[in-house]
Design a protein that fits this description.
By secondary structure, the protein is α+β, with helices and mostly antiparallel strands. It has a single domain (about 1-100), classed as Alpha-Beta Plaits (2-Layer Sandwich), CATH 3.30.70. The chain has four helices and four strands. The two termini are about 25 Å apart.
């Protein structure tokens, strides 16, 4: 299992990104409002107020999407779809995608069960 984390820098693309998750085979995720450290420092910490000029053009807020994925083959599929949506994650200011191993998880919905909780045959 992997924890997949995607920080989306363009909030307007969220609907397309969530559709990409489903298309890649990832049916569950949590979407969090987030903001970058540079934005926080330049607007909330007076010592770093001069960073405001440096931050021009950067979006102040992001969406962070987290999901525990048991089908690790879904991650490269998701990456390709996200590259199409964002114009390429290798470009600055588009987003960050990464995964980390998960050694324990409970409370996850098994994608191979029916609504009644019985395993599909």
């Amino acid at each position: 299992m992997k924890l997949v984390v995607f920080v989306l820098n363009t909030e307007e693309l969220l609907d397309d990104v969530l559709a990409a998750y489903v298309e890649a085979g990832i049916s569950g995720a949590t979407v969090l409002d987030s903001e970058g450290m540079g934005r926080y420092l330049s607007y909330e910490v007076p010592l770093f107020a001069d960073f405001k000029e440096f931050m021009k053009g950067n979006k102040p807020y992001n969406k962070t999407i987290i999901s525990v994925v048991s089908d690790e083959d879904a991650i490269p599929r998701l990456q390709k779809l996200l590259d199409k949506i964002t114009g390429g994650l290798s470009l600055p200011g588009t987003g960050i995608l990464f995964s980390v191993p998960v050694d324990f998880a409970t409370g996850l919905i098994d994608q191979n069960t029916t609504d009644e909780g019985e395993e599909e045959k």
